[in-house]
Amino acid sequence: MTSYVTFTIDGSTVTARKGQTILQAMQAHKTNVPNLCNDPRLDPYGGCRTCVVDVEGQPRPVPSCATPVADGMVVHTRSEGVENHRKTLIELLMMEHLGGKGDGVGQDDLELLAREYDVEPLFKLESHRRPYVDRNQFIGLDPDNCILCNRCVRYCHEVMLCSALTLTDKGPGAYIQPTRGASFFDTDCELCGGCVSTCPTGALYDKRALGTQDDKVDKTTTTCTYCGVGCQLDLHVEDNKIVKVGTKIGAPVSEGNLCVKGRFAFDFVDHADRLKMPLVRNDGGELVEASWDDALDRVVEGLQGVRERYGAQSLAFLTSSRCTNEENYLLQKLARGVMDTNSVHSCAAT
């Protein structure tokens, strides 16, 4: 049985599930505080400290992303001390945020926070991180944009259950790299791009999205067609062409996780060889464009002809892994109820 606690945030009494963190409780009540190292798909980390809040009775601010709620707790999220603390942290992070290629059409959460808090770093630290060049065509890594929040490493470990990325070295020379310094291709990385999606600064970025402009990009939410899972996609479109595919954290079905095909395999949309109309063979045996009605009439004619000549058991039906469960159900009804054959299968079966 779920138990609840009641506590106060900025003068308002709220209720949360026991075991939730302060940040989770705030977000459940449609409020928030700045945070950089937090990702709801990952275990609490408390690394960047931008989400600190004051809790009455505590000697110093605590990270809201890693502090569980307690009955009777009194929390202040925007006190003068907390805001000054947060502003100083953002300034320090901006000193080592040296900029670079960034994530094309993505957003740099640290830059947004710096603008929100009107923070300009006193100076920029000298880079001690070696440039990283990888031969894969999808994921880029700019070490000078990294603030060592470790979200990408944790995402690989906790969500993808692999060790494609690792934190190397210490102090100002610490940096993120593919495991053992190898290419992404040489690790157990599946190029899902989850590290890109969780990175808050664009240190990990989509190579093919570079050069695009945020104010020229439209977003359209749709459903991936690569399999029957039905992951939700956000298509980033510029000049009527897809430049990037992403998804929102917590999106239906996949919770914001995508496979390599869903995130990166969108070139077929504008490919010159893409079929846009049904094709049927003419009397000369050549494939020519036809209407859907004509094409479906050909299908019916062919299926009925095979059944009449060789019997229903000579027919077999195979559905695509892109079909939904409902579409698979309809096809097996067609096979069994109309064509009188039980030879029906889906390539999505495991």
Summarize the structure.
The protein has eight helices and 16 strands.
Structure description:
It is elongated, with a radius of gyration of 26 Å. The chain has a five-stranded mixed β-sheet with strand order 2-1-5-3-4, with helices on both faces. Among the domains are: 4-78, Ubiquitin-like (UB roll) (Roll); 212-274, N-terminal domain of TfIIb; 279-346, no CATH class. The chain is α+β, with helices and mostly antiparallel strands and 350 residues long. 24% of the residues lie in helices and 19% in strands. It contains eight helices and 16 strands. The mean pLDDT is 89.
Which labels suit this protein?
350 residues; alpha+beta; 16 strands; N-terminal domain of TfIIb; Ubiquitin-like (UB roll); elongated; three-stranded antiparallel beta sheet; 8 helices
